[in-house]
């Protein structure tokens, strides 16, 4: 099919313009190739429309470029893809810049993690990445886009329609299609590995936080134990000093009692200075002894070693024996001695 005369006239007029809005193509041979490729494009795809506009590069520079806009109908059951193909100022030595337009149909948004199209619509297919003049041109580019979008459609539509396994279809036998298939498979494998790695990293981060908390707890416990150990050592030293003081006092003030401590029974180490003191010491010893026996009986009852009847009987007998000693102590020293 011959291209419309209006399209040819538009191309010639745009390329020959010398006004301040002139296009950024300067070489005559370059313009001739652009004219040839655009004519072939609108001849094969008559629904594409041509226009000129300013294009803003990522480095901030602005150029006036030709672009072709149209719909790629990849199949009868999937929505068409609206694309704009910008011809780079160094075309055909630099590949075209392809964008998928989503503003014309808000229901068809680009799905995440597409191997060739980012969420802004910029398309970077293997054909564009390996672009090489004179083997590459606009018509083959559009044909390649239709192929890869038929295998992996860029829009997020019903999952029952989407073909997610087409990259492994055995009918893809050409070198170009094999490269597209391999790129798509590698992209999805990379995305899956990255997702798994992020999941593992998140799990390890949580584990790291938990281990750091436990390390903090253990550090606090060790610090407290060290402080406790230091306190016990200080207390042992204090008791040793106090023991030395007592021993020295006994050596100086009561050599006979000191001899009793080291060679005789401990009970005879201290003696009362008078008869009343001796009675108080003996009464206290008997009272405390009976108290210790009653305490042991309480523990025996709790542990079930003795029966309740035996316990009551023994406690009564001990209380009967304890009363005279307590009565004597109260008479000699007052009730405060029993506290």
From TrEMBL:
It is found in: Endosome. The keyword Transport applies. This is UEV domain-containing protein. Residues 274-339 form the SB domain. Keywords: Coiled coil, Endosome, Protein transport, Transport. GO terms for biological process: endosome to lysosome transport; protein transport. GO terms for cellular component: ESCRT I complex. One of its GO terms (molecular function) is ubiquitin binding. Pfam families: UEV (PF05743), Vps23_core (PF09454). Gene3D superfamilies: 6.10.140.820, Ubiquitin Conjugating Enzyme. Transmembrane segments: none annotated. Belongs to the ubiquitin-conjugating enzyme family. UEV subfamily. Its main location: other. It comes from the Eukaryota. Residues 15-159 form the UEV domain.
């Amino acid at each position: 099919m011959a291209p419309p005369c209006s399209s040819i006239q538009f191309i010639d007029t745009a390329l020959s313009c010398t006004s301040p809005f002139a296009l950024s193509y300067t070489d005559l041979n370059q313009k001739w190739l652009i004219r040839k490729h655009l004519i072939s494009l609108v001849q094969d795809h008559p629904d594409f429309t041509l226009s000129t506009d300013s294009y803003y590069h990522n480095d901030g520079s602005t150029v006036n470029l030709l672009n072709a806009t149209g719909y790629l109908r990849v199949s009868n059951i999937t929505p068409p893809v609206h694309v704009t193909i910008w011809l780079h100022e160094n075309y055909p030595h630099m590949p075209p810049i392809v964008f998928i337009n989503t503003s014309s149909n808000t229901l068809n948004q680009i799905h995440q993690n597409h191997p060739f199209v980012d969420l802004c619509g910029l398309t970077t297919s293997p054909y564009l990445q390996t672009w090489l003049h004179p083997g590459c041109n606009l018509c083959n580019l559009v044909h390649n886009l239709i192929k890869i979008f038929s295998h992996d459609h860029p829009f997020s539509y019903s999952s029952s329609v989407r073909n997610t396994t087409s990259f492994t279809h055995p009918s893809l036998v050409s070198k170009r299609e094999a490269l597209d298939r391999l790129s798509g498979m590698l992209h999805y494998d990379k995305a899956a590995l990255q997702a798994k790695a992020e999941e593992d990293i998140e799990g390890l981060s949580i584990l790291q936080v938990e281990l750091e908390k436990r390390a903090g707890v253990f550090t606090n416990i060790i610090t407290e134990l060290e402080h406790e150990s230091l306190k016990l050592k200080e207390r042992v030293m204090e008791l040793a000093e106090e023991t030395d003081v007592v021993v020295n006092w006994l050596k100086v003030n009561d050599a006979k009692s000191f001899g009793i401590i080291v060679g005789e029974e401990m009970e005879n180490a201290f003696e009362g200075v008078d008869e009343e003191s001796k009675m108080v010491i003996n009464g206290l010893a008997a009272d405390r002894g009976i108290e210790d026996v009653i305490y042991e009986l309480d523990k025996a009852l709790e542990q079930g070693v003795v029966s309740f009847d035996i316990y009551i009987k023994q406690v009564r007998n001990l209380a009967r024996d304890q009363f005279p000693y307590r009565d004597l102590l109260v008479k000699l020293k007052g009730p405060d001695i029993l506290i």
